[in-house]
Amino acid sequence: MTQLTLEQEKIFDQVNNAIEADNIAEATRLMKLLPVQPELAKAAKETLGADYLRQSGFNLTAAEKEYGTDWLLR
Amino acid sequence: MERTGYYDSLMALVGADWLNREKVLQTEASKKHSRGLGATLKAFREIADSRDIEIVTRAEALTVLRERDLYGKNDPSVLSSLNTAVADFAVIASALAIVLEPEKYRSAAATYHSKKRLHGIPVDGFHEAANSHITRLGNRVRVVGISMPDKDILRQRQANMRIAKELYMGLQRKALGLE
């Protein structure tokens, strides 16, 4: 199960508030602060490309921990 | 155990299961999850409205790959179906690459018998993979106990695949000089 830190939980609360307010741009901005699930990051690399991921601004720390720091180059 | 004892246990436990399920659905986390799924449904609808075959097919490919790696990890019984789905999207990507090169596509199309054509257009790998995936998504909609927001997303994903097929047929007609 994904474990969020206290700080990350607060950010995720704001994500849900943004979704409830139908402010998807804000929800997206906030989600980029939270580590993307490794499986989702891997799926994005394979379907949307490594360049997209590098430029997206998404937090890839969880994926790097799972797959290695050079995973986008492979 | 007495015969009635088996029935008593089962009655009590499935009764408790249902009550617990209803309690879970009433939690704030469950309501947030439902709202989130509603927003995801909208995102899939916007993807459909793009009428861009690359966006529509890549979005579904991303979703399918993610599902395989998230759900297949803990549930080997779904791995086979999800692996097939991933393979279908590899076929879809290949077919899309070829149809965008008319000369290559015309050579491939010439190998199709009239029985495997629809209004003169080959019912090729893209069609077969897309049809297979639409059926697969439809099977998931019919699973008992699945939430309405989840069903809505699955139905929208089916609709997106039908749009992808329609867009692809336009590309086939263009490649074959039928427009």
Unreliable parts of chain B: none
Radius of gyration of chain B equals 22 Å
Radius of gyration of chain A: 13 Å
Distance between the termini of chain B: 74 Å
How confident overall, as mean pLDDT of chain B? Answer: 95
Secondary-structure content class of chain B: mainly alpha
N→C terminal distance of chain A? 27 Å
Low-confidence stretches of chain A: none
Order of helices and strands of chain A: HHHHH
The major beta sheet of chain B can be summarized as: 2 strands, antiparallel
Spatial arrangement of strands, main beta sheet of chain B: 1-2
| Number of continuous helical runs of chain B | 7
What is the general shape of chain B? elongated
Characterization of the model:
The complex is a heterodimer of chains A (74) and B (179). In chain A, 19% of the residues are buried. Helices cover 65% and strands 0% of the residues of chain A. Chain A has 74 residues and is mainly α. Chain A has helices at residues 6-20, 24-31, 38-48, 50-56, 61-67. Helices cover 82% and strands 2% of the residues of chain B. Chain B has helices at residues 3-26, 28-50, 53-74, 76-99, 102-109, 125-141, 148-175, and strands spanning 117-118, 121-122. In chain B, a hairpin with a 2-residue loop joins strand 1 (117-118) and strand 2. The longest helix of chain B is centred in the last third of the chain and has 28 residues, at 148-175.
